[in-house]
Amino acid sequence: ERAVVQDLSQRGYFVLGGARHGFDFVVYEGDPVRHHGSMFVVLVEEDRELLPRELVLWNRLAATAHKSVLLASMGEAELEPTYIDLQCLQKTAVAANPG
């Protein structure tokens, strides 16, 4: 959990708790006072099997809020988190925030 927050923060994002939205975190591309969140983050264990209904639920909740969903996992041997963007349904590198 801490590694994901730290990684996203180092990339220039603001990361706040997302429990009230049903997610682990909300990621902002700028100061949360001035910007809307752009992504919801779900922390998942590296070897956890995801149920299709979970993916559909997360995607629907995020689409309703005009956000994307980022799955984040941290393997024991990994130095950096791995991210999967549900909009792309493929592994993606989270770029540094341009703002």
Protein described:
With about 100 residues, the protein is an alpha+beta fold. It contains two helices and six strands. The chain is globular, with a radius of gyration of 13 Å. The relative contact order is 0.20. The model has no long low-confidence stretch (mean pLDDT about 85).
Amino- and carboxy-terminal Cα gap? 24 Å
Uncertain regions spanning at least 5 consecutive residues: none
Helix segment count?
2
H/E topology pattern:
HEEEHEEE
The outline comes out as globular
* Main β-sheet, spatial strand arrangement: 1-2-3-4-5-6
Structural class: alpha+beta
- Average pLDDT, all residues: 87
Mind telling me the C-alpha Rg?
Answer: 13 Å
Strand content: 25-35%
Residues in helix, %: 10-25%
Summarize the SSE layout with pairings.
Blueprint: H1 2-10, E1 14-17, E2 25-28, E3 37-43, H2 52-64, E4 68-73, E5 82-85, E6 90-91
Parallel strand pairs: 3-4
Antiparallel strand pairs: 1-2, 2-3, 4-5, 5-6
